[in-house]
Structure to design on (136 residues):
């Protein structure tokens, strides 16, 4: 997608985002000049590059699905992530499209993000219980 000056507008892909949260994300993205795109579950098996508007074969492959929310940015947008935090529109699974993953389906990316998330949390020490000391 191109803006008026001919420059490409970066897209933000939304997967399984509830309507109220999707509205917050759309508004934040549009304020920042990004194009939010809600992806239909029927398209979860298509490569991310195609979902971003790249040319290619759009014939349906085997159906793929996943549960849970995921946000995928065409280019990293720290201002968007900051805005979502301020709005309380947190999403656990977030990614940026790279040359390495642009041929992946959304379902494959989601599975990889979950593996990484689990591995990261398995290596983190458990937080000690929070105790309050009484002041005297």
């Amino acid at each position: 997608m191109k803006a008026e000056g001919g420059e490409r507008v970066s897209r933000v892909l939304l997967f399984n985002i509830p309507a109220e949260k999707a509205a917050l994300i759309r508004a934040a993205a549009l304020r920042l000049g990004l194009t939010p795109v809600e992806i239909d579950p029927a398209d979860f098996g298509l490569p991310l590059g195609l979902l971003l508007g790249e040319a290619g074969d759009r014939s349906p492959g085997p159906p793929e699905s996943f549960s849970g929310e995921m946000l995928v940015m065409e280019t990293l947008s720290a201002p968007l992530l900051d805005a979502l935090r301020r709005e309380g529109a947190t999403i656990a699974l977030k990614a940026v499209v790279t040359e390495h993953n642009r041929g992946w389906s959304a379902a494959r990316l989601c599975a990889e993000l979950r593996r990484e998330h689990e591995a990261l949390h398995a290596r983190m020490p458990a937080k000690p219980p929070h105790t309050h000391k009484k002041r005297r």
About this structure: The longest strand covers residues 11-15. The mean pLDDT is 85.
